[in-house]
Amino acid sequence: MSMEDYDFLFKIVLIGNAGVGKTCLVRRFTQGLFPPGQGATIGVDFMIKTVEINGEKVKLQIWDTAGQERFRSITQSYYRSANALILTYDITCEESFRCLPEWLREIEQYASNKVITVLVAPEVSFDITSITCISCRFVGNKIDLAERREVSQQRAEEFSEAQDMYYLETSAKESDNVEKLFLDLACRLISEA
Ligand code: GDP
Ligand code: MG
Questions:
Q1: Which residues form the signal peptide (predicted)?
Q2: ipTM beyond 0.90?
């Protein structure tokens, strides 16, 4: 009998400028809530959520950068053993989009080559819902604020295609695409494991 309470364990690391909504995305997914007010900072380095995918228990250890969102201040130890990275920007903040190449350089420097870089994977059907299984690495958050959008979907798609990265737009507030983001990624990680 297995000692473990899961079949798979994956470490997922969220990066991107301060204020883009990383903590809110993690809390929406792990706790099902959108933190009120500005103070979304949490006192732990990671949160855990176990999901079931095709009968397999998948434990996701999701690391959130708390106050370290300046380039080169996140050290190798943070990326070490990461199975996947989620690079996030805010669709209402041009600056957070323009910083993405800096983040990519940091990823190249520090992240292990085991980190997922594949763009599209075969379709896999979930027990929960049937969605295309893809590695989600690039996320535009706050789509509920459409009237304040500064970065068009087309620009983001062009950027993600040039970088060979999968792109998804989310709202932590409205819970749009948040489950999809993490479950697609978990599915992709299983198929790579
Ligand atoms: P972090 O610094 O990347 O962790 O960003 P936070 O998660 O702390 O969020 C920064 C601010 O953006 C907070 O005021 C959140 O309430 C807000 N925020 C985060 N996600 C969303 C979203 O999807 N929609 C809207 N409207 N606001 C969001
Ligand atoms: Mg945060």
A1: none
A2: yes
